[in-house]
Known about the structure:
β2, α2 and β3 form a beta-alpha-beta unit. α1 packs across α2. The mean pLDDT is 90. This protein has a five-stranded mixed beta sheet. It is an alpha/beta fold. The longest helix has 14 residues. It is globular.
Amino acid sequence: MFYLIRHGQADYSEKHTKIYEGVGIDFSPLSPDGIRQIKRTALDPRLKNAELILSSPYTRALHTAAILSKELQKDIAVETDLHEWMANKNYQYNAAHMPDNYKEFMDCKGEYPDGIEREWEDNHRLQTRLTGVLEKYRKYGHVIVVCHGILIHSVAPDHWPENGEIIEYGGDL
């Protein structure tokens, strides 16, 4: 069983300062509310049986995983493919295009309209990326996976997880 957990609420108060521009925004830690969310999540009895915590490399996810690790006394492994959705799957970061690409992704429910591929990462790629990571950890009975809402939504399409929410996933890999 995999326990997919959306990271806690991030603190973006330093946006547009220091290094918090463009991709630097992904260095934002959790907010005080986000820390409280994850401390509450750590109390969920389902997590006690976990053997390992996997985490996205983004700071908000790593901060979440660190809190869970401390509270649950579980080791953390960072999996780079648990990263956030890509507004440009060719790794061409352009902050000006991100809002439009995200809007199009949402309007199209994560599927390319008319079957014409776009620069943004679609649901299929998200699912493939997530399940590729999970496949490596099938041998474990219970694994906590700290990642991002859009990644979780790709395998639980009827639900958008809240910060700190746990979604059980034992689906076909």
